[in-house]
Amino acid sequence: MTMVGRDGEQARLAAFVTAADARALVLRGESGVGKSALLDHAAELAAREGHLVIRATGVEAESELPCAGLHQLLYPLLPDATRLEPPARAVFDAVFGRPEGAPPSVMTLGIAVLGLLSLAASRRPLLLVLDDGQWLDDPSAAVCAFVGRRLAGSPVRLLAAVRADIASRWDAAALPEAPVGALPEDDAARLLDLRHPGLPPRLRRLVLAEAQGNPLALLELPVEIGDRSGDPAAPEEVFGRPGLPLSRRLQHLYGARIAGLGDGVRAELLKGALDGVGTRPGDTAAGAARYRMRDAEEAVARGLLVVEPVGGDLAFRHPLVRSSVVQMSTPNQRRAAHHTLARVHRAHLERRAAHLAAATVDPDEEVAAVLEAAAESATRRGGALAAVAWLTRAAELSETHAERSRRLADAAFVAGHAARLGQARRLVSADPAPGADDSPASVLAAGYLALYQHGEVRSALRQITAAIERLHDGGPRGHDEVLGRLVTLLLAVSQYAADRAVWERTRQLLASLGDLADERSRLYGDTWSDVVRHGAGWSGPVERAAAHLRDREPWDVSRLGVSAYHLDVLGLFRPHLEQVAARELETGAASSGMIMLHLIMLDQTAAGEWDAAERTGGRALALAAEHGHELFAQQTRGYLAQLAALRGQVDRADALRAEVDAWARPRGVGFLTQLADSAGATAALSAGDYEAAYAYATGITPAGAFRPYVYQASRTLLDLVEAALHTGRVEQARAHALAARDARLADLSPRLALLTHGALAMTADDMTEAAEMFERAESHPAGARFPFELARIRLAHGVRVRHARDAGAARRPLARAAEEFERLGATAWAERARLALRAAGAPSGAPAHPSAPLTWQELRIADLAAGGLTNKEIGRRMGLSPRTVSAHLYRVFPKLGITSRAALRDALNRMGELPGSPPRVDSGRQAIRHADGGAR
């Protein structure tokens, strides 16, 4: 079979087999690293070249028998010994059969062996292949080394493999050596995927970490896992048993040496192994240093431990040593070691909990409480999988049925957020309490499964509503936390239903709970349902919450992020979301992590980072498919459809939109059908099909109104207005813009303020009003955060001014719109802006700023600096750091041919005077007066 990652070693062996001056070569490497496979390769290559190949393998059981290894190696050639001279024949008789007198010396025996090899090689070249050379008895090893040093120029070659972790006579043989190391990370992953395709990602990572590039471990560890490969086992710190189960062959690599240690040394190694001491110094977890093994020099001498040069700490030579130590211990030995380690780590909650969980057998409420606290700590640092294991163990150690049920419910809740929906159901089923099948925890688990995997909003709504009513109307007291979880899930399901009747029923139920519904529930209910009617006043609390996200659990962060999206302040959350999303998807709340990816993608799309948004969407789609979250998969496709529509990729947008709509509409998932319609409207606008765009937009909400509990109603404000204007529906466009004004959308979010001002400007009959509204939109502090919307408004502004017969004033907003569309990759919109720019008198194909190719951001910064603003003030207005502003100005000066800030104003004015060039950018009222004056 083709070897992976051994090209260099194979090339050296090929040269060794074919080179005329080759004599001997020793392959040296750790146990299981693949030396035998390389010997096989060399033997096969030599056989093809016409060599006689003789193979032997050192046997540990024969390592004390003098010349046993040499007998095995030479046995096929001994019949030829009869052709040797009598003295040489006598040497072989003395060693291998008829001893007479004292045994021959190494030199005498070596010379006789050389003669026998030369005789055998006289007919064809000879390759001697010796595996496990470290087990050769001393006389055999000495003779092989003697012979190997004297083979130069002969047709005989000696190839041996020895283990680097066992001392032997080969260490001083003075023969050429070739090191065989562990496989590099990429090659190790390739070998694992080749031999064990389809291994679940988490177990794949565990195998790679445990094997550390050892090919034998890569091949055999997955076999030992067997059908447990789908078991969502917790990380090793939780169970206190590091590593994966070892096969007999893997355990044999180190088992004999471990078994030969004294009891005290084995106990010391066991404590180190159970505490997760790795193969590098300074190994830490959860802020606590690992156990420091002592008085284990015997293990160092046996090649099981190494002494680190810095600090002198003892570390395992390989993770397989650590796993072997644990696997060869008894349950009582492990529990005793865990008790000791729990005392060692008494000041570190999670480390102590890990050892107490493994050390305790009988119910113990004190230990269960420690595990519960550790689960909460782990959840906040991205360890939801560990938290599920700890809570499950805490339930097992609970002293009362009530505490057991509560902790199992908590474990199921966390498992649901960790995308372990099946495990959540199993945890609920494990509760022996009466009525557990219909308990709130069971309803939660079933609700997550119905929503995320199947998008079944109707059945989930019925079950959750009934459970809340039972708890509120006479259910057991003390279930406030469970009630809060049910309410939050009800709000999530209602959001996906996006139906007026559903939301009104949900809000009535929420109101009936009174003080039992906390502020977070009210926040989610108002922002997730209908920001037009209920979103006022929530921006402040959400913005303040953004400063304290580190103290919140991952599901709270993602829920607040959804509120921030509806209020268009998602940019405040994005740095934290980007920081924790990868962590949560690895070992934490994966469902929350996937929601975080959606939020990151939405903010990237809004900010004009479309390539990054595409990559984020691709990752989110792959993860949703991996975890079986069909709802999230379709939601991701909806966002990708919207992105494709913005870019003018109409066919792709339509295909994705149709797939989402076909899945969501029969299930009543209005959130996704609205998203599909919004993507359809944007795609139609990109294609210039304004009738279709109007049909899609008014399918979401009628002109002049914002349909209750339709979250896309306000988000598609500009789409409906623009489609109406282009199809001659001027009254409907104006009615919709006035409806936005009357609903005070500008007070709800910065994006809605931008859209409202733009819509009013585009539909105003009075040029003064239009100029004022365009100024408000284009100078809005949040404009840079929504570049596509701002460019659309500038395009409309330029077209409006051009129609008013002021071509010079029109070129400025048109040029800026064209430049921004080109930067974004909105090809259809960019072409539209270029056509309008040419119609305004700009030369065909002329760049936006022919005399100085400044980007929009550079031009904006230069203009603000020319107006006297400091770098700090510019940064605050544009959402940049002062250092970034300074860097932009550093690039602007040479482009404008100036060397100082004082020369900016004149340089920008000169740009506006060039034929066909737009006047300089002006963020104040001067630009609006220019446009307004030109119109009059």
Determine the CATH topology of one domain.
Rossmann fold
Tally of helical segments: 48
- Strands across the major sheet, in which order? 2-3-4-1-5
Instruction: Report the structural category.
Output: mainly alpha
CATH architectural name of one domain: 3-Layer(aba) Sandwich
Give start-end ranges of low-pLDDT stretches.
227-240, 280-287, 845-852, 913-936
> Quick one: overall form?
elongated
Relative strand content: under 5%
Mean pLDDT: 85
Report the end-to-end length measured between terminal Cα atoms.
83 Å
Q: Give Rg in angstroms.
A: 37 Å
**How many strands in all?**
9
Q: Please describe the biggest sheet, giving its number of strands, its sense, and whether it closes into a barrel.
A: 5 strands, parallel
Name of the CATH homologous superfamily of one domain? P-loop containing nucleotide triphosphate hydrolases
Give the helix proportion (percent range).
55-70%
Assign the CATH class of one domain. Alpha Beta
Protein name: LuxR family transcriptional regulator
Pfam family, one: GerE
InterPro entries: AAA_16, P-loop_NTPase, Sig_transdc_resp-reg_C-effctor, Tscrpt_reg_LuxR_C, WH-like_DNA-bd_sf
Keywords: ATP-binding, Nucleotide-binding
